[in-house]
Amino acid sequence: MRKRNFRTWHLVFLIPLVGIIIYFVYPTENHSDVFDVRDFIHSIVITSGLWVGVLSIVKFLWKKFPWEKHPLKHLIIEIILVVTYTNVFAFGLYKIQVFYGFTEPVEDISKELFFTNLITYFITAIHEAVEFYRQWVTNFSKSVRLEKDNIEAKYETLKSQINPHFLFNSLNGLVTLVDENTKAVDYIQNLSEFLRYILKSRDTELVLVRSEVEMMKKYIIIQQLRFGKNLQVDLDIPENYYHYSLPPLVLQMLVENCIKHNIVASDNPLQIAIKASKKEIIVRNNLQKKFENNSTGHGLKNIIERYRFF
Prior knowledge:
Shape: rod-shaped
Helix content: 55-70%
Number of helices: 9
Structural class: mainly alpha
Number of domains: 2
Order of helices and strands: HHHHHHEHEEHEEH
């Protein structure tokens, strides 16, 4: 919409304005002090032709040889193309006008060509100024967006940065308070190790299957302490798969997804199997969907995007 408005602004306002200026100051031999429709149309035609031609040249150069990357090449090619186009267009238009009798031949056309080139330089300066302004607006918008993204990233980092020492010391202190409750101690110790793994791997793109299996053992203990016999997990990944790599916490996210979207109850135990076959790790569960499910699908999308990245 903005581009269309800008083109309309060109056609309706700038081209006629420059054409009027040219009409009153253009030093042609046939120009008189009395208003002449043919001279006025001539000035509009030549302005339109120069305007559109120079605009095409400037846009081509900004795309092919951006000013910030190739300033000298941009300038040299622009001068060559603009001068060539201006003289060919102006001389061709002059010949057409003479041929059809719209104007009388002149003895020396170099004066008119010189003035036409001055007009073209003025038009070129306008287009270059517009492109510079657009580039500045684009760069400024990018800068603002990057600054915003940077602030958001810092904010997210601050939110996710739990002091590990404080966390683990607190959990260890909690263990001493509940040392008579074996289940509570197991839960806290495994939770501590699981959180340690999350903090350690959050900036890691890939981890060994061995590390994921060890982490999953702790995660399964945590969930089984929570759900008891209502949750049955069979983790069976042979050691010959341990040297392979995968994105961290993928298995945990899949198992968590199973628990989140299925009924876990004594009369309907949730059975999850994590097995390896043909260089693939497969997570399966018996399907017993919850009736109310406000799933966003973010977890599975996250996994798909991470694998697509690799």
